[in-house]
Amino acid sequence: MIEDPAAAEVSLDPVRARLLAELSEPGSAAMLAAKVGLPRQKVNYHLKTLEAHGLVEMIEERRKGNVNERIMRATAASYVISPIALASVQPDPARSPDQLSASWLLAVASRLVRDVGALITGAAKARKRVATFAIDGEVRFASAADRAAFATELAGAVQALVSKYHDQSAEHGRDHRIVVAVHPSTTVHLSPKEER
After folding, report:
1. 106 and 140, same domain (yes or no)
2. Among candidates 104, 88, 85, which has minimal Cα distance to 96?
């Protein structure tokens, strides 16, 4: 989870992003230069920048002829830029209180990324797992009325489950956040006429 604005900017550079992807397996500047088609010196420059921001680390130093070759690897298998990196402009559910708006959904999703990222970071330091659960699926509605009826029924079902299991007086209980979202799929569906 990238929370530092400068690290986020560094990671978004196309060359550096490619190097991060390549460094899922350890490699040296010379090895990476051959893969990405850039001079070794330029790759070295980008690696030092990534290293300064904690995105790559040296795992070994080898002597190769007259030179010390640094073997680097990415510090994570994947990276997500936290909304915290853009703290002053990050989406906030309180600023977009309309639960039926796309802005509110984006703000809730942003908070989800931020919170789960913090949990993952904390759990990794404590060498523990985070108890989470998610459902992901698709549904095709015949009409806007069906979509509205589905949303109403889903909200009622979630509220019934919350009422059943929520125990404010549980001495050792732990609060959990529930996020349920419905949005149009971004998959482009062509009509039979367009498919021809």
Report:
1. yes
2. 104
